[in-house]
Each structure stands twice: as structure tokens, then as C-alpha cells.
Amino acid sequence: MKLPPIAHVVPRRLGEAVSRLADAPPGQALPLAGGQSLVPLLASRDRTPRLLVDLRDLGELTGVGEHDGLLRIGAMTRQHTLATHARIGAAAPLVAEAAARTGHASVRHRGTFGGTLAHAAHPAQLVVAAYALDARLLVSGPGGARTTALRSLLAGPGLRHDEILTAVELPLRGPGSGQAFGQVAHPVGGRPVASVAAVVDTAPDGTVLRAEVTVGTRVSPPTAVDVTHRLRDVGAAAAETVPTGPGQPQRQGPPAAYCRHAVRVLADRVLTEAITRARRPGAGAPPVPNGSARHTPPVPTGETL
Predict the structure, then answer these.
(1) Of 18, 30, 45, 124, whose CA is between 20 and 30 Å from 202?
(2) Do the beta carbons of residue 80 and residue 58 sit within 8 Å?
(3) Whose CA is closest to 177, among 154, 194, 155, 202?
(4) Secondary structure (DSSP) of 188-248
(5) What Cα–Cα distance (Å) separates residue 52 from each residue in 35, 180, 188, 242?
(6) What angle, 0 to 180 degrees and rounded to 10, lies between the N-to-C axes of helices 93-100 and 125-132?
(7) CA distance linking residue 5 with residue 49, whole number of Å
(8) Neighbours of 245 (CB within 10 A)
(9) How far apart are CA 83 and CA 291, in angstroms?
(10) What does the pLDDT look like over 268-289, one tens digit per residue?
């Protein structure tokens, strides 16, 4: 479907962009980042703004840096950069791995970190990864800047119509931490059916001190589950987050039962991989080509894996 007629402006400063959004009635002006999430909504008429405020020239919304134990990534940082940036790969391998599995090359060179999180599609790889890492979002609006947790944002009404996501902050984790990501994608188009991320912390002797898996599917929003004391049945614990009862909204794509099965298998695999990485400091988590499935062995049955 063709896009409807929409006015388009390209501000040079963040304040100007915020003003253009604030001056329009709610829903009549939208920020445009990479467009990979927004343009399909425009084409399907799920969003019907009269004005797009293009953020492409706001260089202040790009870049990677560190401060006060946090990795800060500009909201306009492209997904390709997330997948290939050395510091992101070392400090937040979960984000690098999820970005590498997002869409195909042309999508990753256009799509942005902030744009993906702002639209927060349920199974989106980067949404699940950022949720798992308990990301904090820096937001600017007419009243100034504020910080909010991604988990709180997704549980509430989201960003206000006159706000712009400017940066994402991720807590830096110390030695003994491991992260891993897995997905099942639709064979046509590669859209994720289910995504699972695992984050673990281990003691020097390899004992698992904390383990959490985050699940996002086409039928359920991102949900984090503490599995520290359920290492032997992490698949079942993760699958419990996916609804199966009557009355669930019907969505295009695989049924909830298939999503639950996919989550059960993925959770076992990614938890094992995360623990393996935690016990092998410096091994890193190289980006995985989109659509590929990294095989990992079944979860062992020992108490500390």
C-alpha cells in the first residue's frame, strides 16, 4: 500500500525537533528515525500523521560512550553499528548479537536502536535484548530531559507525543557475566516468531549466582523470568510466560502453542550458552548472521550447570 501524503521536515537541532512535535496535536506529528518500524505502520494506516519530523541530521543522537558504570548508545545509532562496534560487542554482547539477527543488511543499515525501542514490537530482537539488560532510556521533551526504565515504559503508555528518545543506557557488567540470544524466525521475511535472551552472573568457581531469561513472542510482550533456582527446567519456566488459554487475541503468524514450544527449546540453548561464556572470560559473543541458528548442547542436569 502506498503512503498517504505527509509533510516532512528535517530539523538540525534536538530542541527544534521537540518543538515541531509539541506544536502539533497528539498523533499528527511523529518522529522519524530509520523508518524500518514506522513506515510499515504508515503504509497500513495504523498511524496517520500529517507531519514527519526526520531525526537523521541530529548528530547528537549518535555515538557510543561510557560513564558512571553505564554504556550509553545514541538513539540514532544504526543497527549495523550495534552489530559491529567493538565496544558494544565487548560490553553488551547481547545487543550486538540481537542486532546481527535483525532483518537483512539493508534493514540494519537504516534501522536505529532508538526507533526499534520506541515502537517496541513484541518479538523484536533488540527490544528483547535491551529488556533483558534492564536498559534505561533518555528522553527529551518540552519540559526537559528525563530518564525512564525500558521495562517501565513498556508497561505504561509509552512515550508522549512530544518526546524524543535520545539515548539508551545499559549497565556495565563485571567478570563472570555471560549473555546469549536466540530466536526462531519466520522462513518468509525473517520476522521473529520468538526471541529469548539469557543473562547470568557466576562466581569465580563457576557457580551460577543469578540467571534470568527474557522472552518475547508474537503473542506475548517481553517478560523477564528469574531462573536462578530453576536451572534444570528453564525451558518450562520460560514457556510459562506465553499465554495459551482461550480468549487470547488472534494474531497473524504461528499459534501460541508453537511459540511456547519454540521458547522452551530456545531458553535451554541460550542459558547454556550464557553460562559457557560466563565461565570463559574474554571469549566474547561474535555476531551471528541473521536467520542462522547456533546449536548449543542440552542444559546439563547438575545443580550449578
Answers:
(1) 124
(2) no
(3) 202
(4) TT--EEEEEEEEEEE-TTS-EEEEEEEEEETTEEEEEEE-TT-GGGHHHHHHTTS--STTP
(5) 10, 36, 30, 35
(6) 170
(7) 9
(8) 6
(9) 14
(10) 999 999 999 999 865 444 544 4
